[in-house]
Amino acid sequence: MFSGDPQEDLCEGISRYIGVNAARRAIQRLCGVEARFNNVIRTGCLPEEGFSEAEIEAIINKLALMDSNNWCHSSGVGEREGRILLNLVRRRHFGLAHGIGRSGDITAIQPKASGSSLINRLSNALLLDWLRRCA
């Protein structure tokens, strides 16, 4: 039966298919990547150990899900609403169609593009951290 703890519930669900030990290893790996990324978000600093290409893609895909143009059963009709016709294009730029900035302010948060806005702000913080380390 499910415990209410998302990590334990996921492990229990996975273990039904691949066994408890394999499920624990899988969850440990996923949680490790997520914990490292959460630390980057919390500190606004580059990690001591970089992310692999696959991890970066997974993180960007997860952030892209925050943008309203990637919500299931949602079709925006605003003039600045991101729309993508071809899946090839969607995959190429992770579905990030809104862009950044608003009303002439490139640093403004896009209300319907939380993921894009977060990537913008986090990129700036990480770049500043890198510049501080190099100086």
TrEMBL record:
Task: Alphabetically list the UniProt keywords.
Answer: Protein biosynthesis, Pyridoxal phosphate, RNA-binding, Selenium, Transferase, tRNA-binding
InterPro entries (alphabetical) = PyrdxlP-dep_Trfase, PyrdxlP-dep_Trfase_major, Sec-tRNA_Se_transferase, SepSecS/SepCysS
Query: Might you name a Gene Ontology BP term for this protein?
Result: selenocysteine incorporation
A Gene Ontology molecular function term of the record:
O-phosphoseryl-tRNA(Sec) selenium transferase activity
Q: Might you give the EC number(s) for this enzyme?
A: 2.9.1.2
One Pfam family per UniProt? SepSecS
Pathway connected to this protein: Aminoacyl-tRNA biosynthesis; selenocysteinyl-tRNA(Sec) biosynthesis; selenocysteinyl-tRNA(Sec) from L-seryl-tRNA(Sec) (archaeal/eukaryal route): step 2/2
Listed cofactors? pyridoxal 5'-phosphate
Catalysed reaction, written as an equation: O-phospho-L-seryl-tRNA(Sec) + selenophosphate + H2O = L-selenocysteinyl-tRNA(Sec) + 2 phosphate
Hey, what's the signal peptide range on this chain?
Answer: none
From which domain of life does this come? Eukaryota
Question: What family classification does the UniProt entry report for this protein?
Answer: Belongs to the SepSecS family.
Q: How does it assemble?
A: Homotetramer formed by a catalytic dimer and a non-catalytic dimer serving as a binding platform that orients tRNASec for catalysis. Each tetramer binds the CCA ends of two tRNAs which point to the active sites of the catalytic dimer.
What does this protein do, in the record's words? Answer: Converts O-phosphoseryl-tRNA(Sec) to selenocysteinyl-tRNA(Sec) required for selenoprotein biosynthesis.
This chain belongs to which protein, by name? O-phosphoseryl-tRNA(Sec) selenium transferase
Q: Which organism is it from?
A: Echinococcus multilocularis
